[in-house]
Amino acid sequence: MSRETVLKDIGCEQGLSPLPETKGAVNRWHEAHFYSDDESLLAGFTSFIETALIAGKVVIVVVNEPHREGVLRLLRLRGLDVDAAIRQVRYIALDVDETFSKFMVNDRPDPVRFFKAAHECIARAAQIASGERLRVAACGEGTSILWGQANADAAIQLERLWDDIAKTYELDILCGYLLAPWQREQQKETYLKISAAHSAICSH
């Protein structure tokens, strides 16, 4: 099913229109960062969120509860007024399992449900109280969790869907993976396919 068919099916013209089709390069930022431990993953997410908020963007964070708490703690330690960002709906934290429930069917992402859920979330984030349309940044670990659950095919499919979203809305996306170097070697085919779905990759 094509991106255009899915967008038409979900009625995405309501709220936030997608970017028109262009023949040139699309201004999208969709990176995969591979971290060896929790500490480096939290530091990476925190830096991404801090940079986005300072730049005036709206940030969507999709991680598990321990990582949500860890990111908030680090943001506050860095002196960022994240509580104000939450009140202004410029920092939106979502639970991975709850987010998955909106579009996963038989342990695979359903494209129509995914685009509908993503569009609604992005539209709500972009249209803040002032009515000003802001660029949205998002970071999460959902695909990493799927891979860790031995559901690599679903992780690859989900990354490709997120890449379509990044192109459609000029979204900045950071996908965080907890993965040791030896795991990348053992599962090299999955690693290469996931890497190919991103504009850039980085290891920490």
Would you kindly provide a written description of the structure presented here, covering whatever features stand out?
The protein has 204 residues and is of the alpha/beta class. It has one domain: P-loop containing nucleotide triphosphate hydrolases (Rossmann fold, 3-Layer(aba) Sandwich), CATH 3.40.50.300. It is 51% helix and 19% strand. The chain contains 10 helices and 8 strands. The chain has helices at residues 3-9, 38-54, 65-77, 82-87, 96-100, 111-126, 142-148, 152-169, 181-186, 188-196, and strands at 29-35, 58-63, 91-95, 104-105, 108-109, 136-140, 172-178, 200-203. The strands form 2 sheets. Strands 3-2-6-7-1-8 form a 6-stranded parallel sheet, sandwiched between helices. A two-stranded antiparallel ribbon has the order 4-5. α7 (142-148) packs antiparallel against α8 (152-169). The longest helix is centred in the last third of the chain and has 18 residues, at 152-169. The chain is globular, with a radius of gyration of 16 Å.
What is the compact description of this entry?
The protein is an alpha/beta fold and 204 residues long. The chain is 51% helix and 19% strand. It has a single domain, classed as Rossmann fold (3-Layer(aba) Sandwich).
